[in-house]
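Schema walk-through. Below, the input block comes first and the output block second. Nothing else is stored per chain. Lengths vary across the set, and this one has 155 residues.
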Amino acid sequence: MLQTLVPFLRAKLDSLYHRQLARQQAQQLQLLTPSHQLQPGPSGPPGGGGGSGGAAAWRQRARAVAIRAFLAVYPWAYAAHEGARFAYQLLYLLGRTPYYSPELHLAGLQVVRLTGQEAVSASGRVGSEGGTALRALHSRLAWQGAGILSLRGHG
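--- output ---
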């Protein structure tokens, strides 16, 4: 599950980061252009005029603070995650850890290297075990009178 969830969340966070960064840069560019004139605010009482307007302004400020915090923290979190992935892969290649990535470590899964000889012996063992199982199934079906199954061994 982590192997699908982490890349999905990273893609969503990357998209959000780039959208918010572009929006922030556009706002800064708007403020810096000489043709931009500051518009006077709406005329009204200095308190914002009502209770719901104050709550909306507070939410807007809180959202702006959260976006600024996200834009400040996300590059560091991204770099830390990529650094951890690189460290895990390097340590795995050097034989210092059985885990290839942080996600596999959290899931408790180990990537095991097979030599060519181990792969050949494992495939031979599976083939012979599979053939034995198929022969047992065939004999059981034949004994029950099914007789419609034809199996061949691996020669």
